[in-house]
Amino acid sequence: MEFKDIIGNEEVKDYLIKSINKKNILHSYLFLGTNGIGKLIIAKEFAKKILCLNNIEETCTCKSCTCFDGRNHPDFYCINEEGESIKIDTIRKITEKIYEKPILSSKKVYIINDFDKMTKEAQNCLLKTLEEPPEFVVIILISSNENIILNTIKSRCMTIKFHNINDKELLDYAINVLEYENVTENLLKVFDGSIGKAIKLKDNKEIYISIKKSETLYILKFVNSMEKQPQKNYQTTKKDKEVHGIGLESVRSCLEKYQGTLLLDYTENQFTAIASILKQRNIQKDEKNTAIETDK
User: Fold this and answer.
1) Given pLDDT bands bounded at 50, 70 and 90, which one contains residue 246?
2) How much is the pLDDT for 190?
3) pLDDT band at 5 (very low <50, low <70, confident <90, very high)
4) How is the chain split into domains, by residue range?
5) Which residue in 229, 208, 226, 227 sits closest to 217, CA to CA?
6) pLDDT at residue number 199
7) pLDDT tens, 109-139?
8) Cα 285 from Cα 277, distance rounded (Å)
């Protein structure tokens, strides 16, 4: 996939293209932004261009690009752990081979996705490499939560901040690619500028239908807020209770009960947690209505 085919973050793509054309490639980058907005896709395309033997913007068929597209490039490594954390053993395996010279290209590129899942010990292990990287190595760290990353790591990387996809581009993608039948304004709010969320929501048809309900939208809105500021201490306010019948603390408690931590994207369990909150609220409403009827 070429840069021009990737939706959103035009400024980021322009900067990376100029860096390649001017041969001004740094040793380490930190890509920051919400999940599902194309950070990993752009990082891979950037890596492909860095490794290209011809250094051209158009589609290239050099041996390096062919190997990259075939997912067997000897100088490209992408760590994309599916577990809850990236442990020190994984980083040690990288650092053991990182000083070996490239085989096909003039450089080697390492991408570490979901860097915020890396343990403190693992970050400190990588720090030694970031302090004195080999001249032929480029490391790209990808994260959605800057607060968890050690300051010593951030200070040694060029931080590039990604923006959420705008509503127009997201709407076009949802209708033309994901084949949503109807995308309401409320649904766009739930997508929160993330194609990843739009894809995940499409795979959960029952939830997609329930989004029309204002109560579900209310809960999801604050899930988005918690994603952006996962360390913020949400408190229940009197207004929340009066207007919505449920406070933010209840939302967070329920999500933590199911997941053990505030996740950075939507999952089945997270939606189950939200459903349980709404169910409890409906029970409270029914009890209140029953009491009113009894008084009459």
Assistant:
1) very low
2) 77
3) confident
4) 3-161, 167-295
5) 208
6) 85
7) 999 999 988 888 999 999 989 998 899 999 9
8) 12
pLDDT in tens, 195-221: 988 888 777 666 666 555 555 555 556
Whole-prediction pTM: 0.73
In CATH terms, 3-161 corresponds, of 3.20.20.70, 2.40.128.20, 3.40.630.30, 3.40.50.300, to 3.40.50.300
The count of other CB atoms within 10 Å of the CB of residue 206 is: 8
Smallest CA-to-CA distance from 153 within 178, 121, 201 is with 121
- Largest Cα–Cα distance of the chain, in whole Å? 83
